[in-house]
Design brief:
Layout: H1 2-63, H2 68-98, H3 105-141, H4 148-172, H5 177-194, H6 196-211, E1 219-222, E2 227-234, E3 238-242, E4 248-252, E5 270-278, H7 283-299, E6 310-316, E7 321-329, H8 334-354
Antiparallel strand pairs: 1-2, 2-3, 3-4, 5-7, 6-7
Helix pairs in contact: 1-2, 2-3, 3-4, 7-8
Length: 379
Amino acid sequence: MCGLRCGYHLRANPSADTIMRELVDQALASTWAIEVFVIVTVTLVVRMGLRYLMRHLKRLATRSKNVWDDALVEAARLPLGWTILGVGMLFALDVGLATTDSGFADYVGPVRQLWIVVMLGWFVIRLIGRMEAHYIDRIKQKADTEVTTAHAIAKLLRASAVITTVIIAMQTLGFSVTSILAFGGVGGIVVGFAARDLLANFFGAAVVFFDRPFSVGDWIRSPDSEIEGIVEEIGWRVTRVRTFDKRPLYVPNSKFTSITIENPSRMSNRRIYETIGVRYDDVPVVAGILDDVRAMLRSHPEIDTKQTFMVNLNHFGESSVDFFVYTFTKTTDWAEFHCIKEDVLLKIGDIVTERGGEIAFPTRTLHLHQEPVQEPTDD
């Protein structure tokens, strides 16, 4: 009986060990779940705390006179939050996959590094955009309308940031950057031949950006082609010009390297150049008319007498004695210029009338030859 009991007892012990092992396994299994729960909770708490911290930093940056700290805080707000969230979730996923034999666990590390690289690139791009906006607002407050260069530099920096991010991301994923660059050098030659027009437009944009023959908001026209209007946007491929009948005109940038561009927006003055004719009967008073017109223009508050100023008899026409007025206004505004020109012409008309003359209009005098009347003779 003792032997039977001992044998039964020995057979019962392995059953208890099995139960203990299962309990231990279940405890271990629940441990990784707890770890995942803790990681996710800590990630969400840190992200929430970061949100409040960024709001506080934004208020502090707004109070300062330096606008660049505003750009830095605003640019970092979203990328930093998504970085914490992504990295935390990927750590939780790594812990969860560690208890399985799945091969996906090997990809969590590279994906986490890739996520950080992408978020860093996003931060740099946002920072460039915020700095561009603050800089443009700053120079506009100084009455400087030259923002084309700022846009060009910002576009170049953004393109560099994107290219750098892509190269680092490919290196993180295990691609050989050296091979990619070597292939890019050979492929660049092929692409260069295939995209000659695109490259010509790109270098045309570079010429516009650095030579600055015009900028956004300027009125341009070309005597070599039918281009006239207000520049709305200067892109890398085309420049958008809004014509005076409100139609958009898209001009390839390569065209600006081969045509003449006139920029009336940068004129210093506007010119009044008019020819006025009086009757031949008014020749005795022409000298007085010219003196009065000169005096009127010299005293006119909107005429720039420091520029070329001429009022002279010019031509004996078919039906008028012509004199010309050549002077410049102080304003360059188109509408205001025409109001000034109207006032000047009306005053010239009054001067001619006050001197007893009249503005000539095309006339023709017909002289008829009259034959002498012969007296009848008596036969």
